Structures are given as C-alpha cells and as structure tokens.
Amino acid sequence: MKQLFTIALLSLSSLYAQDNASLKGKISNPSNGKCYLYVVKTDEKTGQRKRETLDSSEVTADGRFAMSFQVKELTQASFDDGNEQTTLLLNQGDDLYLTLNTKMFDETITYTGKGSEKNNAIKNFMLIQETLGNDVYGMESKKDTATIFSFIRKSYGELKGLMEDYKKDIPELEGYLQSEYKMIDKEIEQTKSRLLFNSKMEGLKGTNLTDFAGVDLKGNNINISSFKGKTTVIDFWATWCGPCKAEIPSFKALEEKYGSNINFVSVGLYCEKKDWTKMATDFGLKNNLYIAKEGEKQLKEYDIRYIPRYIVVDANLKIVDALAPRPSSGDLQKLFN
Predict the structure, then answer these.
(1) 198 and 217 share a domain?
(2) Residue 308: cis peptide before it, omega within 30 degrees of 0
(3) 8 A C-beta contact, residue 176 and residue 298
(4) Which of 112, 140, 163 is the last residue of a domain?
(5) Does residue 1 lie in a domain region?
(6) 85-90 and 309-313 as β-strands: parallel, antiparallel, unpaired?
(7) What burial class does residue 280 get, using C-beta atoms within 10 Å of its C-beta: 0-12 exposed, 13-18 middle, 19+ buried?
(8) What's the pTM value of the predicted model, to 2 decimals?
C-alpha cells in the first residue's frame, strides 16, 4: 500500500513538473539562429531587475521555432528574436503560434491558437501607443503647445477608452492594462513637462544671456561675459554623468577645429570641486569653469535639470539656442557664425 502511495505521489509530481504552455511559430527573415522567452523579476531586497529565461529555441533555416514551459499563473513575458522584443501574456494551457517578419517586426506580429486573443490585443495596443508617441514627437517641431496638448487629451482619452473595452472583453488583460494605465498617465505628464520646457527655452532665443560666474582650474573667478566678442558654446556637465563624459571627445574635436573663431566653455556643476578639477584637467579643454552648489541659482532661468546641456550665444551674448544639439550629433556646428 505504501509503495502504491509513493508511486502515486511520484506520478503527480511528474505531472506537475510537465510544461503546461507552449509557444511555436515562424519568423520570416530571421535575424538570429536562436530566440528566447523570458520574464523580468525584481529582487525584493536589492530592487535589482533580473532576466530569467522561460525557454529558448533554435530557429531553423526556414524560421521555425518551438518552446514549451511552465507558468503557475498569468505571467507577463517577452519574446526576443535576438534583435527585437515584444511583450505577451502567458497562462496555463496557452498554446500559441506566433508569426512575424523582421523587416517590420512589431507591425507583422500575429498570434493564433489558445491565448491568442489577449496577445493580439496587446500587440494592437502597443502599436497604437507607439503611433501616438511618434505623432506627438513629430508635432513638437511646430512648437504649438496648445495644439499638441489638445491632441494628447483627445488621442490618449480614446486610447484609455479602448483599454476599458479590452478589460471588459478580455478579463485576463485587466492587470496588465491597469499597469499600463498608470504608465500612460506618467508619460503624458512627462511629455507635457518636456513640451513646456522646450517652449520656454525656445522663447529665450534672441534674448541676452544672463551673466553667471564660477572659478577656473587655477581658482580664479571667471564670468561667462568675459567671452563676449565671439560665438560661444557652453557645455554643462558633471563628473558622474556618463553621457556628459561621452560627449567630451566630440566637444574637444570641435574646439580643435573651430577654436580660433569660437569659444568653447566647459562648465562643471552638480559635483565635487576636487573631482571636477581632476577630470577637467584630464580632458584638456581650453576654457573651464566650475560652479559650486551655492552658485547654481544663477542658472535658474535656463533650467539646467538635465545634462549634458549645451547653450550657444553669439558674439554679443545673445542666445542662439538654449537647447543646442550635442557635439556628437554633427548639428552643433550649424549654429556657428
């Protein structure tokens, strides 16, 4: 009797361990020889996010793949073809077939089989969200914030209405959509904040640069107005800022090419003076200026929240562009005169 009971337990254990969901499909123009299905989990102690693979599969010459895995509950996962990713929801018993063409990855994704309804809805939702984001970005060049805000209210209001319909029609999507709802609200506020900021900076063109001061590498006081007489490019950066440091070689290259006619001024802020002194010395730029924390209020008008940041002024210290392109873009020199 005991032996039979043990066998029964082993049988149940074996049954439980079996994969209870699958994802198969075909990739046209595969970009890689392998694809992956993974989840991202957050460590409760460290807060770090870690990628855990549910399964992976070789991709055959004609683009076919097959994966099977176990999920205990409705799970948000990502499919990765080795080049691009897409989000999907997986549940016990799902038997999905995915097709896509890498030439138009997101646009060509289609699911069939059990579990396809919720994932086709997610695919459509993500495409609409991306399109709206691109539309807003495209409208930014017109600098008409009233029109853009009206578009945001109308378009994102319709998107939220679609989400409510999805929640009614496909109950499995409720948790996912609630999370996306919060992200959309956050995205809208960030977009509005950025547009207002950009509009404010656009309004500074042609105005006089407010003079500000700091110290140079020798500890001497120096005012930005001392560079009057030439077009001046001002770079705001900090020692801990990776993107700032990544732009320095391009900034230095421009100084070497145009430095006889253009002032290039490197302004360190939001960091310790000793760290700035060492790093600014190592960079070897001609004009260096450091602003301590107590002096940062001088820059309030220019709202230097994000760095690296570049401002270009003409020979009379009138602002040419308060949000000038990064040196590495190849567009900054177009502002030189």
Answers:
(1) no
(2) yes
(3) no
(4) 112
(5) no
(6) unpaired
(7) buried
(8) 0.66
Whether residue 164 lies inside any domain: the answer is yes
What CATH number has the domain bearing residue 27?
2.60.40
Instruction: For residue range 283-319, list pLDDT tens digits in order.
Output: 999 999 999 999 999 999 999 988 999 999 999 999 9
Interstrand relation of 95-101 and 21-28 (parallel, antiparallel or unpaired):
parallel
Encode pLDDT of 190-243 as tens digits: 888 888 888 888 889 999 999 999 999 999 999 999 999 999 999 999 999 999
Contacts of 69 (CB under 8 A, 6+ apart): 19, 21, 22, 23, 37, 54, 55, 90
| Domain with 37 in it | 17-112
CB 21 within 8 A of CB 95: yes
- Cα distances from 271 to residues 180, 205, 275, 326, in angstroms, run 36, 29, 7, 21
Burial class (CB in 10 A: 0-12, 13-18, 19+), 261: exposed
Nearest in space to 126 (alpha carbons), one of 95, 105, 101, 102: 105
8 Å CB contact between 78 and 41: no
Domains in the chain, number? 3
Shared domain for 298 and 265, answered yes or no, is yes
| Angle in degrees, CA 243, 244, 248, rounded to 5 | 115
Which of 172, 202, 232 terminates a domain? The answer is 202
- For the record, the structure tokens of 246 come out as 């990544």
Whether residue 196 is contained in a domain is answered as yes
The pairing of strands 287-290 and 262-268 is parallel
Cα separation of 202 and 208, whole Å? 13
H runs (alpha helix) in the chain: 2-17, 105-108, 116-139, 145-169, 174-202, 242-258, 273-283
- Say which DSSP state 203 is in: T
Q: How far apart are the first and last CA of the chain?
A: 95
Q: Is 140 left (phi over 0), alpha (psi -120 to 50) or beta?
A: alpha
Same structural domain for residues 133 and 89? Answer: no
